[in-house]
Amino acid sequence: MEQEEVGLALGLSLGSSGHHELKEQPSPSSRSWARLEPSLSLSLPTKDSRLSAPVRIAAVKRELPMEEDDEATADRALYSVASSALVAADDDEGCNSRKKLRLTKEQSALLEDRFKEHSTLNPKQKAALAKQLNLRPRQVEVWFQNRRARTKLKQTEVDCELLKRCCETLTEENRRLHRELQQLRALNHPHPATFFMPAATLSICPSCERLAGAPATTTTGADRPKAGGGPGRAAHLFSPFTHSTAC
DNA sequence: TCATCACCGGAATTTACATCA
DNA sequence: TGTGATGTAAATTCCGGTGAT
């Protein structure tokens, strides 16, 4: 991005004359900046300076020893400087705050469209999209980062809700199994007068590994979790006399 | 093989702004 | 109409992973 574009994008026309150490300013990428900074001995105009932001950025560009193919790093550095200039602009007005970009509906829509296609961008795509949107590549990059974060958060919420429902289902299944267990125990230790099935007939079905010994009327495949052989396994009750291979 | 560097993305956090009671 | 609480999203910072040299 040309320095003039940066200045125009920021809508800045600052008056300034002083200088400000670059490393004191926050940047979009502190690591990139930290790697740049040691090689720099330049100082930047501050809020007190009388240079316009584009001029200041141009000054930085002259002093930054960058390769032409290092546009991403350059962009971050320039953005950092531009941000600094913006802060300086506010300071000029006695308001030490950064301005916040609000994307237009058109910009948001296009970003969303691109995100639907690819949730990440390569440098060329980023630059092209930035140009198309009249934004800085760094802004596009940040938007995609935040968008991915929002997507992940949304998915986490969905997963959480699913787990919650699953937990409720399992809890209910657990209650039901406890009731059945009590019934089975009653069968296993019946009063002599009401005895009708010997304890020995309660067994595990060899084919499905489910407990046998009572009618298989309470548990169906529909009301059990499909996977994993959960609580439903032991609850599948059947009579060894009526059990078939359908089990 | 190891060290260093550059780059990128994720996570956490900060901050500006909009909305609403 | 002014104000504080709150939510949202842009921006920042830090950190770890990875590939190139």
From TrEMBL:
GO molecular function: DNA-binding transcription factor activity, RNA polymerase II-specific; sequence-specific DNA binding
UniProt region (Disordered), positions on chain: 1-36, 216-235
Subcellular compartments: Nucleus
Residue intervals of the Homeobox domain: 94-154
Coiled coil segments of this chain: 160-187
Top-level taxon of origin: Eukaryota
Gene Ontology cellular component list: nucleus
DNA-binding region: 96-155
Keyword S-adenosyl-L-methionine among record annotations: no
Main location: nucleus
Name of this chain's protein: Homeobox domain-containing protein
Upper taxonomic lineage: Eukaryota, Viridiplantae, Streptophyta, Embryophyta, Tracheophyta
